[in-house]
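Q: Okay, next protein. This is PilZ domain-containing protein from Paractinoplanes durhamensis. I've checked the sequence twice, so it should be correct. Can you predict the 3D structure?
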Amino acid sequence: MITVRAGSTLTLRCYGEGVSTRSAGVESLSLISLAETSANFVAELAPIPVLSLDGPGVRRLGVLELVSDAGVTWVEAELRAGLLTVRGAPPTGIVQRRAAARHTGGYTATGTAQIDGGLVAMAAEIEDISTDGVLLRVTDRPRLPEGISRTLLHVAMPWGLLTAAVTTVDQRADQLRGTFEWIDPAGAAALHEFCAAR
């Protein structure tokens, strides 16, 4: 069962020319679901009423980061007249459980990504962090290198530097979602307290 709770934040990334965002040609819309919606499968979800600033005649298409009780996945979707409609089946399965205590990001990070050809340095912004893992967006290049297996991250958190090794769960263009393979012990305790206090 897939359940999208009222109050969930859903991100729709719309592609088009002339859009001014951090990534050229991509506009990221954060939408708040206004009612609980459930179905057995993602493709069967009824249109989700969301809080949107668009007028009634505006239609937007893009890739939706769909957050549900089961986890998170990406799927094509359409936004029109305050309704978010899933279009087709998701290209991936549910990639991360949402049971862990979590916190929205905005924290800068530096790291070293491990790929088949060796190691690549990168700078990133943490968009979402939990006691289980992170969602990051690379900030020093248009997209991430292909085939990242794990990443050593140094994240500037409110209490200080968090050092962790992250195993890749899913990677798309400039985004990477991963689970913690290792966290320094002091950082693990501080992160648990930080996320639980949200």
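A: Here is a summary of the prediction. The longest helix spans residues 185-196. The first strand starts at residue 2 and ends at 4.
Q: Noted. On to the next one.
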